[in-house]
């Protein structure tokens, strides 16, 4: 399959649905080890993103992701604004010129997104952040040839769960040191929803 | 004569405005601009507000951007990169004490390099 504009739009709608219905969970994860605004920020940002893309006509996937990026950057408010904004901006640039996005292009776009998170957040893997979901996911995707819904779900879930035992060395949670252990990182959790939402919209198209 | 501009990026609109007020009262008429909070007075940082503040104040002497916590740094970096102006610099010096030092030096006509040297000496 290829990702078409309709998939790209559906993905953002799916993310928004998941973020809205899990807003309280994201907030309570963030209250445990952060500043407690992740649910609110993500809910505000993705609602705005959905509002933005609902009023536009798109000729390519890149255009959808670019609008999502700029909306998230200006509306989210917390650290997830620039980070998720960077993710979609990098992916938008990586798929530019392609009306539909084949798997290889998508896979390399994920790599670009990971590079963007590292650069913008000055982060490395293992620091208990969203990167601990994005990097293993991108690595796993570079080893296969086709969209694989179950593989996306399994990789995202396992990576997200692994953040529970990590000690945070980045972000607000780093102030808690050992006490950050035992909690799933909120950014890893929201990243899991992003990939669950992706898996949902490639369902039936494989 | 123009002076080096100072932009204050804070999660709180009131905090940024408050620091702005201190600088203006203590140092006098120097170009300082607050970029605090989100629309509706909510807590957070907004890169469009930061861009606007830099645009309002930037002049040929350059601009120094101070920030407080968390996302403020990332949003400030993004604002500076996307504007692409020359001679806009981000510093990790404390937003109140650092901006105060910068304001004093800016007011006596120091340039960006001289102000950075003072910031590095005082807050390394």
Strand content of chain B: 15-25%
Poorly predicted runs of chain A: none
Note the main sheet of chain A: none
Q: CATH homologous superfamily of chain B - what is it?
A: Phosphotransferase system, mannose-type IIA component
The number of distinct helices of chain A, counting runs of at least 4 residues, comes to 9
Helical amount among residues of chain B, as a percent range? Answer: 40-55%
What is the CATH architecture annotation of chain A? Alpha Horseshoe
Write down the domain tally of chain A: 1
Strand content of chain A: under 5%
Question: Which of globular, elongated, flat, extended, rod-shaped describes the shape of chain A?
Answer: globular
Give the CA-based shape of chain B: globular
Secondary structure elements and their pairing?
The complex is a heterodimer of chains A (206) and B (124).
Chain A: H1 5-21, H2 23-33, H3 38-54, H4 61-75, H5 80-94, H6 103-121, H7 131-141, H8 149-162, H9 186-202
Chain B: E1 5-10, H1 13-27, E2 32-36, H2 47-57, E3 63-67, H3 71-83, E4 88-91, H4 95-107, H5 112-123
Parallel strand pairs in B: 1-2, 1-3, 3-4
Helix pairs in contact in B: 1-4, 2-3, 4-5
Explain how this protein is built.
The complex is a heterodimer of chains A (206) and B (124). Chain A has nine helices and no strands. Chain A is mainly alpha-helical. The termini of chain A are close together. The model of chain B has no long low-confidence stretch (mean pLDDT 93). Chain B has one domain: Phosphotransferase system, mannose-type IIA component (Rossmann fold, 3-Layer(aba) Sandwich). Chain B has helices spanning 13-27, 47-57, 71-83, 95-107, 112-123; strands spanning 5-10, 32-36, 63-67, 88-91. Chain B is built from five helices and four strands. Chain B has 124 residues and is of the alpha/beta class. The radius of gyration of chain B is 13 Å and the shape is globular. Classes of the chains: A mainly alpha (206), B alpha/beta (124). Chain A binds chain B through residues 35, 37, 41, 73-74, 76-83, 85-86, 120-121, 171-172, and chain B through 38, 42-48, 70-71, 74-75, 77-78.
